[in-house]
Specification:
The chain has ten helices and 29 strands. The longest helix has 14 residues. The protein is globular. The N terminus is likely disordered.
Length: 532
């Protein structure tokens, strides 16, 4: 992670969770099932797992009672052909048994899940799991299994204190054959990161071999201090704090009995910061923004729509103090217990180690136009709406097919699908649009960037096949704002619409009902999907 910059490298990282090969113990399980006897509760039941962790006493049997194995099969819409759903990846991950016959997992694989199977030690049976609620901003999801027999004999491992830098813990997971893999790990640092969204919450960083791509937990002598949610290519893992797990459980408790359609809207979520910044170390810049010689701070460069600081901070402000703690030019504050920490942490966790909650008030000190100001903000959770060009669509992506022209809203999945992982080098014009227009300013309307995704071979598209991949900037002389506007223009009474592309080239499209025979030829059942 890079501190004190205007972006953060943890932005929406997809988990690298991989399926494990069938181990010898799984083979034994299969043989057991074939010959008709049950698997023992644990091959090493009551065997202690040795560790240097103080007070350590967890046995294999205790771990098996608190951990389960999930196989999650996903589906997704093809970003360049949004009418088509495709089979996605399959993930095998570790889940935590929680009170109330529930299972806690990372949210990443769950958001696109088509089928979730869960297994437990001592049984070869696969149970169907259902999603109670998931929060991609916090990277947490709560599941359940309707068959109550699944949880018989299971016992949640208690949550303990949050991990601390320099302390040693035991990292553990279950493999494909329900063997327990574990090793002592030392937390190197704490850092606020956002895996999938904008809410930067603290995680504990540590290195480990074996790797924990399929998730797992880290424990002290009393219980779980963190849930492993991410592993990078350098064997560095992140563990979600126990306090975040506990707070998520409490928020799920408050909405679980509501109808499924109302749970998400009633769920409070975690506070989001909602700004990016640049360091402010250059003396000339400090003078330009009105900082006194005794003041330090960071320059606010971007304020996102619908976040905690929206309406309170603005680009050009200098943030000097948060909750009474001075912010240095690199964007850090001096935590009484943890030492120098990124200022993002103060928005979600106080110096006593308590996670902040939505609705709580936080005091900020800023310099604006050379004058000192104090502002109080009410912490909010992120409800969407900050991105003009999303990193990931939250639902079925909009599209329009008319006379062989395929139009979509620009998003990063489309760029990756259409131009590959090097899209910033291969689609320079769209990459420039992304860099300059990806976020809404707080007072901007919710317009979207429209792109000509593809051109189907047809008489109506003759001569336009080389135009695919360009942005539509005007529709009949008006700025292109939405797919709905484009649909209304193209489906107006019979005539001609003129679409202007960013390159200056124009497309002349016959208006009306379109060409259903052409869509049928290419297997496109619905002409459009338009965002309300």
């Amino acid at each position: 992670m890079i501190r004190g910059v205007s972006h953060f490298s943890g932005r929406k990282r997809w988990k690298r969770m991989q399926s494990f090969s069938m181990s010898m113990s799984m083979s034994m399980a299969l043989i057991a099932a074939m010959v008709g006897f049950s698997i023992p509760a644990a091959l090493g039941a009551n065997t202690g797992l040795s560790s240097s962790v103080s007070g350590w006493s967890f046995s294999q049997e205790r771990m098996h009672a608190g951990l389960v194995r999930l196989r999650i099969s996903t589906v997704h819409y093809n970003p360049a052909r949004p009418w088509s759903r495709e089979v996605g990846s399959t993930f095998e991950i570790t889940g935590l048994v929680r009170p109330g016959n529930r299972i806690l997992v990372s949210a990443g694989p769950v958001r696109d899940a088509a089928n979730i199977e869960v297994t437990r030690q001592g049984s070869y049976r696969k149970y169907q799991a259902e999603v109670i609620l998931f929060d991609t901003e916090a990277n947490l999801a709560m599941l359940t299994v309707k068959d109550p027999t699944f949880f018989e004999g299971m016992e949640p491992i208690p949550l303990s204190a949050d991990p601390m830098p320099g302390s040693t813990y035991r990292a553990a997971r279950i493999d494909g054959g329900f063997g327990i893999e574990s090793t002592d790990v030392t937390v190197s640092e704490l850092l606020p990161v956002a895996d999938y969204g904008f809410t930067r919450l603290p995680v504990a960083l540590f290195r480990s071999a074996p790797r924990f791509e399929a998730g797992g937990i880290i424990l002290d002598g009393q219980g779980i201090v963190g849930m492993i949610g991410f592993v990078d290519g350098q064997d560095q893992a992140e563990a979600v704090f126990a306090s975040r797990l506990r707070q998520f459980e409490e928020m799920v408790d408050s909405v679980e009995k509501l109808p499924a359609a109302r749970r998400k809207s009633s769920y409070k979520g975690f506070p989001v910061q909602g700004f990016f910044f640049s360091p402010l170390e250059d003396p000339a810049l400090r003078k330009h923004y009105g900082l006194a010689n005794s003041q330090d701070g960071i320059l606010i460069t971007t304020v996102l729509k619908g976040c905690s600081v929206t309406g309170h901070l603005q680009p050009g402000d200098v943030l000097t103090r948060v909750d009474g703690y001075s912010v240095n030019p690199a964007g850090d504050y001096q935590d009484p217990e943890l030492g120098w920490q990124p200022v993002d942490l103060l928005f979600v966790r106080d110096v006593k180690g308590n996670l902040r909650k939505v609705g709580q008030t936080l005091t900020l000190n800023i310099v604006r136009d050379g004058k000192d100001r104090e502002v109080k903000i009410s912490l909010k959770s992120y409800q969407g709406g900050a991105e003009r060009i999303p990193w990931a669509e939250s639902g079925p992506p909009p599209y329009l097919v008319h006379e062989g022209f395929i139009f979509v809203e620009l998003n990063v999945p489309f760029l990756k699908e259409r131009f590959g992982s090097e899209w910033k080098n291969r689609a320079l014009a769209l990459a420039a649009v992304y860099d300059s227009e990806k976020y809404y300013a707080p007072d901007e309307s919710q317009d979207r960037v429209i792109v000509l995704s593809d051109v189907l071979p047809a008489e109506s598209t003759r001569g336009f096949d080389g135009f695919a991949g360009e942005q539509v900037v005007e529709v009949n002389g008006e700025k292109a704002r939405s797919m709905k506007q484009l649909k209304e223009a193209l489906e107006s009474k019979d005539g001609l619409s003129i679409l202007t592309l960013r390159s200056g080239r124009k497309i002349y499209v016959r208006t009306g009902a379109g060409n259903p025979e052409l869509r049928q030829e290419y297997g496109i059942e619905e002409k459009s999907r338009i965002r309300e």
